## 1
Amino acid sequence: MVCQGIDAPCIDLVANGSRWIIHPLQDTCCLLGTFAQGCGPLKRDWIAANNGTYGGRSAVEGVDADEWVVMGFSENKFWQAASEPLFSPVKMDQGGFVNIYNRNRTFVRNSSFPESMFTVPSTCNINRKCKSQRPCSFRI
């Protein structure tokens, strides 16, 4: 997964009221923003609730994907695998801030997760903000 345009493996962790960007190979972590700043988890129906429109089907990252366009602070584009019945993210572009999902490691299922998946690593510090606070900074 590419987080916030940085081409390195990363984890986008949403836990305890904050969104963290963690680069495990670099042993670094920064605070992207808080839920109050607009960096919380997406609601399940965020596309419908924000009047998203269908953008068509195309090959994205080598996957046959459906595109959805949702206006927010900027134009948000979201692609999900067309052939899979459950929510299966491929790519998300939040006005130029792009996440490409590692489809072999993305966990999005209708089941519960072990609490340990949401443990914020000790390398994370609320005072260490990410170099770019976007897209969270649009609400600050």
## 2
Amino acid sequence: MPITKKRNHFLYPGLSLGSLEGADVNKSETTLDAARIAIYIGVPYCRVQCFECPFFSSYLPGQSRRDAEFDAYFAAVRTHAAAVVQNLGLAGTNASLYIGGGTPTVVDPAYLHGVLSVLVQAGVSIGELTVEGNPENISEAYVEQVLNFGATRISLGVQSLDDSVLAAVGSPHRSHHTGRAVAIVKESGLDLNVDLMYGVPNQTPEAIQASMQWALERAAQGITWYAYTFQPEGIMTRRRPNRYVAAPRHVKPDEYYPKIREVMSHAGYYEGMIGAFHLPGHELQYSSIAYRQANRIVGLGAKAYTYDGAGLYQAPSEPIRYVDEIQHNAYPFADRYSGALSRSQICVRETILGLMYGEIARRTLDFWGVVPAGAGLNKLLAEWRRMGAISADGDGFKLTEFGAIVLDDMLTSLWRVPQ
């Protein structure tokens, strides 16, 4: 029987770093207020699935049906946007907006502009706009279009400058795409953020250092480091997709991340969020609002979630299901609602995102102890410990390597905690 492919995850930072309590994260660079909101627009399409990227949702439709599917999908996103603005009373708010994926750069920017127009016409002011993309899809024409509708930053999934590493993780681009894309973005005057990976099989400390030096020399305003965590069995090969091969690792995430943090700090970057480094004055406001303050968070598109202060809603992951849901009931997504997780901003951030970061802090456990749903979470914790998905870490718990493999199931179970 062939081995079933399991999910691997990018994590900030590596699994073995322990609690985030001791992390030296700058929390004073940005002043936030209740009128600021974070809006995420999801473009769930990718040409290929990088080996176990947790953000993948759907393959890019074939050319013959691409326009029809994109038309239907973005019509649903526009309907969703209008409904959420009305239901949450967002007119007059100032939004930090992030267009993520999937791969936003595989769609015509006119689709994105259409969604932004709905928001602006409904009275939402957009002060920051980040567009995520793959280096192979960046062109002068694309950058000019997103610049014209208000983009302030492009975040490139560079991952590595080593073509052998890119091939190992299944990435569709190569280093020559990266060089061209970076030059185009820098020439445009937009802020540039680059995503880089460490802990990839066969990756050496020298290769990581070279990637870091490359990003610094190109004066990227933001540099985000992800630990690439493979499942213990190894990775699948393209030629033999039902068999696993060994995944040797020269660099362990917990061994090299402190060095990354040291070099970034010495170069003048501050760590606005774990793993995300920015030059002063170029911080990602979206992350500050969504992850640190947890004001109202609006998620538009497949797999996105919305927190309205009273409930947490998540849209279906598959674009086709999302379109169908919007056509029948624009807001909310009743089948993906959790009142328990939204009883407090702390609960939203530190239960779901805490697991994704790799730990459940003591203060989160204390909170669950005083809400009605606490008994349900305690049962989950006991089950996760029994199955080896989490282990004790000081006063809290830490995600294990097995936990990274089954993280999707763990997050799904949180939505089902009895109210």
